[in-house]
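Predict the 3D structure for this chain.
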Amino acid sequence: MARSLFGTDGVRGRANSAPMTAETAMRIGMAAGMVFNRGDHRHRAVIGKDTRLSGYMIEQALTAGFLSVGMDVLLLGPLPTPAVGFLTCSMRADVGVMISASHNPYEDNGIKLFGPDGFKLSDAVETQIEALVHSPAGVRLAPPPAIGRAKRLDDADGRYIEAVKASAQRRLDLSGLKVVVDCANGAAYKVAPTVLWELGAEVISLGVSPDGFNINGKCGSTHPESLQEHVVMHGADIGIALDGDADRLAMVCEKGQVIDGDQLMAAIAERWRRDDRLTGGGVVATVMSNLGLERFIDRHGLKLVRTQVGDRYVLERMRADGFNLGGEQSGHIIMTDHATTGDGLMAALQAMSVLIKSKKPASATFRCFEPVPQLLKNVRVRDATAALEAKAVVAAIAAGEKKLGKKGRLLVRKSGTEPLIRVMAEGDDSDLVKSVVDQIIEAIPRQAA
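Done. Predicted structure below.
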């Protein structure tokens, strides 16, 4: 069947509107409980969330769904997405759930599912769950004695904090570093400052006062302006900005300049290569990563393997081909030696380890290559598929590819999480890049918007 519920990163939408309603969340809990009800043991689900107001509603609905099919539930409270993956595996749960819309505003929410191994589900398993959501008659409710129980896990924060600290090689010592961390008023508002302080850093915290409405609001990795200002103001060595569910990050150097995921992957890859820790012979990234990263990786005798957009596809390729480092330009950094999904806090520790070993300021450490001029513009549309199939858009894309030739790249795609068309071009001629993007944007039919 064609998938209509799951996107590139679980289920996502506006809270209290389809599909992000309490009813759908309960059906997802019932369906996932059925799919992962395997064997005779007492089955268990773990549920984490970020700090959105709607998280309470969705958490309770999911819990009811799981309990109704005989699965016990452990409620983790606000914790990063990677913590849910970690605890699903660590606690021998059958399924894990993260309630979050990542970097989206508070009005949105989402549901991400993890298998018993702590990894996000495959398309095939998500399709199986979706089929049960749409056909609830296939769900078998538990008899009264077998209905599940729910309770809160009081030490979830502490378990994850220790796992993050353990991911840093040889007990990373951040003594002497002044760090500004922006937690986006999101899931890491407690754990991120704690980890940095316990490792010895002088910590200045931003975005640590969630109220249900301010997650990602002019803060975090998608809005690093406040972090840039505070890094310079406080004379900090480095700044860290996490997104709402802390599975990705942006960093800021001592001069207040943003360091994106491509530069972080380059620096970590080169350090790991020197330390003989890099496996797979290179790095996995998406089609959005800058051509400059590809050239840098190539110069060091490594290979850059590209996937379609989405950290799940990066991870699938990493697992299939034995890579232990991959990620996205947006700041999803995946390190399979340490985590089952992107982990912004673990990636920040690895980057700070590189910084300390380099004995250089962050502005030099994380300027591994000169980025090729790249321009990304988004267009909000009602029907992205129809817009991309319009003759004028098809012709504009073909013309743009011809203009850029072999010295550039063009990518036009639908967003997997928002009603947007994303138009990205890059090449050594910045004026040409801008011209190509603008011509495609202009060609998108206005009736689709």
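The chain has 15 helices and 18 strands.
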